[in-house]
Amino acid sequence: MTAFRIAILDDWQHVALTLADWSPVQAQAEVVVFDRHLDEDEAAQELRDFDALCLMRERMAMPKRLMEQLPRLKLICITGARHRTLDEEAARERGIALLAATGSEAGATSTTELAWGLMLAWLRQIPQQAQGMRTGGWQTHCGSGLRGKTLGLVGLGKLGRQMVPVAHAFGMRVQAWSQNLTPEAAAAAGAAHVSKDDLFATSDIVSLHLVLGERSRGIVGRADLWRMQPHALLVNTARAGLVDQDALYEALVQGRIGGAALDVFNEEPLPPHDRFRELGNVLLTPHLGYATEEQMRGYQQNTVRNLLGYLAAPG
């Protein structure tokens, strides 16, 4: 009988097998790790002989046309609360089981922690100054602090609310806007409720914390970016699709805003010659928001539990 085959996809950091004990799964099935990203054509070839796929968040898209090329596929293990690039309806139509694994409570603030790291790195020019020290240099930039500045939050949900007490601790003023946010809800979270126009016009830093959906796609457009102050920073640790990327590129090239700190992109991994890589007023990180050891350990351990439950099920 052919062994049950499991593919762990997009393990870029080589941590999947070290952050959880996979030996009980490996005793019952063959486990293969892919440490590079597969495009759709490659995936159709490389994965056609696997029974189960373990996805890390949205690193690998799983549309209907790909599933149709994977004749043995019976199970998809996903991580995180949402997986917008997985065609769940197509999976159900093909009888493919979907099992979701949560992260850990210790990693629940990982994305907002990164947002603060990006702000501090930008304002104090930490990457540039640290690199200068490697080459024998010394101070070449006068940085700026957070105290007294205005933080504008686009989205005041679970992650947006995490930003507020930290901003207050830094001595910042916090204001927020989203499509459904009320003044009462903003006040309860410790932020001032403002219009979208006012938020972009008066914030020193604009940080995005919305879920990407049909209503929020492209919600930050050219008019919003043009309202920003010339020194202002846009921080996006949410989803690239929230922002009109052409308008953002234009704003950065023309110096209409001070800069952008971006952790998310329309295409990931970001192509080597992507236009944003060439800009000096952009701080780029490779979608590090959720990718902490604590969060990844939770994902892997819960994926193992899901697989063991599936393998133990009758039939």
What do these coordinates show?
The chain is α/β, with parallel strands linked by helices and 315 residues long. The protein folds into 2 domains: 5-101 and 293-312, Rossmann fold (3-Layer(aba) Sandwich), CATH 3.40.50; 108-284, Rossmann fold, CATH 3.40.50.720. It has helices spanning 23-26, 40-46, 64-67, 88-93, 110-124, 126-134, 158-169, 183-189, 196-202, 222-227, 245-253, 293-312; strands spanning 5-8, 30-33, 52-54, 75-79, 97-101, 150-154, 173-177, 192-193, 205-208, 233-236, 259-262, 282-284. Helix 8 links the parallel strand 7 and strand 8 (192-193). The longest helix is centred in the C-terminal third of the chain and has 20 residues, at 293-312. It is elongated, with a radius of gyration of 22 Å. The mean pLDDT is 95.
Outline the fold blueprint.
Layout: E1 5-8, H1 23-26, E2 30-33, H2 40-46, E3 52-54, H3 64-67, E4 75-79, H4 88-93, E5 97-101, H5 110-124, H6 126-134, E6 150-154, H7 158-169, E7 173-177, H8 183-189, E8 192-193, H9 196-202, E9 205-208, H10 222-227, E10 233-236, H11 245-253, E11 259-262, E12 282-284, H12 293-312
Parallel strand pairs: 1-2, 1-3, 3-4, 4-5, 6-7, 6-9, 7-8, 9-10, 10-11, 11-12
